[in-house]
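Give me the fold.
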Amino acid sequence: MSRSDAETVAIGAPRSYPLAMFRSELHLIFGRARTWALLAGLAVVPIVIGVAIKLSGHEGGEGFLGQVAGNGMFLAVAACGLSMPFFLPTAVTVISGESLAGEASLGTLRVLITAPAGRSRLLAAKLVALVVFCLTATMTLWLSGLITGIALFPVGDVTLLSGTTVPLANGLLRALGVAGLIAASMLGLAGIGLFVSSLTSTPLAAMAATFTSYVVIGILDAIPQIDVIHPWLLMERSFSFADLLRDPPYWDDIVRNLWVQAAYLVVFYAGAWARLTSRDIGG
């Protein structure tokens, strides 16, 4: 966003201001070349996986990858799942890390936080825009995987992980639910990125600190001696989306993961709000 764009938003009519600010945040995220480069990179992941499986002639096996050759629909799920440890977090780190720090580095943050709707609405608009990006990034993987899977492999009734066979429409609905759960599993990291971004005016520093936090949490999750804190760690149940592909679905870990993501989002959003509302007007 340029300074003139920020000023246009800042002097908008109070009644339409929240919507104008949200649109501005979406434009800020999706109007950048780096965002489209990230999405393009995510779209390539399922294609690479699908071509590799096709060329290998791999048939059968356990898990999502083992079922892709028999039913291309599973490529959408496999691509999303395989992207969770690195590709999706990297994309979320980049976008959330520069959400406030990028504005501060360009000098537009000062204009935006003096707008009629105030700092709280600005932060809320940024949070909603980050949620939209998390969903967009995940759906990019999902759609690319689905299209590639249909193009390369047969598609039909879906055999779930529990061995039950369901109609294709039911399988697609479950796979779409998986995409939604994976997007939700990125929200805690987005909250961390938003908070870190409120602490600095250097986007690269915010991105690095956010990704470092993600790595540290992952390391803690891998240490069995501190398993007492594992239920509260960000990634502990992030792969529970697979339980949606069982009959009946296992909801316990799914619900717990959503609660943990919500807790991280609320805590770090509150931290970002406290920082932004107490921040010097020139920062």
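The radius of gyration is 20 Å.
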